[in-house]
Write a structure and sequence with these properties.
This protein is an alpha+beta fold and about 150 residues long. It has one domain: Immunoglobulin-like (Sandwich), CATH 2.60.40. Helices cover about 15% and strands about 40% of the residues. It has three helices and ten strands. The longest helix is centred in the N-terminal third of the chain and has 16 residues, at about 1-15. The radius of gyration is 18 Å and the shape is globular. About 25% of the residues are buried. Mean pLDDT is about 80; it is low at about 1-15 and about 35-45.
Length: about 150
């Protein structure tokens, strides 16, 4: 019996220590340099709905303002609703702001919860990437945030 427990713990330890495969957030074709030059320069938080409080969208990792990062990287965005409301997951949207823009909602949906987005390993080609995140709460308050990712050349 002891051997089975030790073997089971060993298998669980080995499987838990393997990193998850990286998710390709933005493809090289979507991030062509000539398209990046046309990206919006806006980094504002866009709020829609009634009087405050709107849902919060906070970039946790990589830290906001980080000058650059290496791919793959961890992406963690937190959501928070206020005044007793709850995040409405059906309202989630993500868009790569390029020309043309690319809807990332389907790629990210499996990693989204009421508390935010967590991806342990994200791949993105070198360059500056703007991603707009949209979310609403069940009280009808909406918020959008544009996050900037600057990925180093390898």
């Amino acid at each position: 019996m002891k051997y089975w427990k030790a073997a089971a713990i060993g298998i669980l330890t080995l499987s838990a220590s393997r990193p998850a495969p990286a998710i390709e957030l933005i493809t090289p074709a979507e991030a062509r340099p000539e398209l990046q030059a046309q990206q919006s320069q806006s980094h504002r938080l866009i709020l829609r709905g009634g009087i405050l409080p709107y849902p919060d969208i906070q970039l946790v990792s990589p830290p906001e303002g980080q000058p650059s990062l290496n791919s793959p990287f961890r992406l963690n965005v937190k959501f928070a609703a206020h005044s007793g409301s709850q995040i409405d997951l059906t309202s989630f949207g993500a868009t790569y702001l390029n020309n043309p823009s690319v809807d990332l909602t389907t790629r990210l949906r499996q990693f989204v919860s009421v508390t935010g987005i967590v991806l342990e390993q994200v791949e993105a080609p070198p360059g500056r990437h703007l991603i707009k995140i949209d979310i609403s709460d069940n009280a009808g308050h909406s918020a959008s945030k544009i996050i900037e990712l600057r990925v180093n050349r390898r």
